[in-house]
Structures are given as C-alpha cells and as structure tokens.
Amino acid sequence: MARPMNIENYNEYVRGFTVIKAISFTSNLESHLFECELNLELCKSEYSPEEKVVLKFIGVSSLKINELGGGLSQLCFLEIHDIRERQLDRLNFSVSETENNAISFYCTRIEVV
User: Fold this and answer.
1) What is the DSSP letter of 88?
2) Residue 106 C-alpha from the chain's centroid
3) Using an 8 Å Cβ cutoff, are 37 and 56 in contact?
4) Number of domains in the chain
5) Long-range contacts (CB closer than 8 Å, 24 or more residues apart) made by 97-102
6) Which of 42, 90, 97, 111 makes a 20 to 30 Å CA pair with 78?
7) Residue 69 — pLDDT band, cuts 50, 70, 90?
8) What residues make up the domain containing 76?
9) pLDDT tens-digit profile of 20-36?
10) What is the value of pTM for the model shown?
C-alpha cells in the first residue's frame, strides 16, 4: 500500500539506500493529465537486496538519466527538494542524484510503497 510521507523525512528515509535494484517509467494513458510515473527500488547493498526502499514518483517531468547500467548502478546522493514556492505547474518536488548527476527530474507527488 502506497503512502505519502512528509517531505522533511524523504531524504533521511532514502539515506544509505544507494544500489538500484529496479527502475521503471510508465505513462498513465487513462489519466486526463497523462501523468508519468517513475518507480525506484533501492537497496542498501548488492549483498542484501531484501533490505530495500521503494519510491513512486508521480507526475514526472524533465526526466534525465545519465550513464546508468553496465554493472552495479548506484545513486549515491539522492536528494529530494520541495519546490512548491516556485509555483511551477503541477511540479512540487525536484529529485536529483548530486554526486554523478545520474538522474534528475521534477514530480508532483512522492509515495513510499
């Protein structure tokens, strides 16, 4: 069951979970907004894949992925920022991996699955 989380807790929640176990991007064609979703499953270690967090980012926009794959893929410093004060159309959060710029995007909502 997905549940929303207070933004102040997201960065603490994902800290230490750096190994990408799964990543998927889908477009919701049934929605009148045609919202895109990104599901990200992160593990603490390649040796303990059962210790994981799963995040669902809803209303994804401006997705950029850089140099993932070819072996163990990690998001070392994933940061989530509340950007509602910028008043961008339906975009409330900025998400980025800041060490290698491996991924970045904006989204409307975030849920912990």
Assistant:
1) B
2) 9
3) yes
4) 1
5) 100/66, 100/67, 100/76, 101/66, 102/65, 102/66, 102/67, 102/68, 102/73, 102/74, 102/75
6) 90
7) confident
8) 3-112
9) 999 999 998 887 778 89
10) 0.87
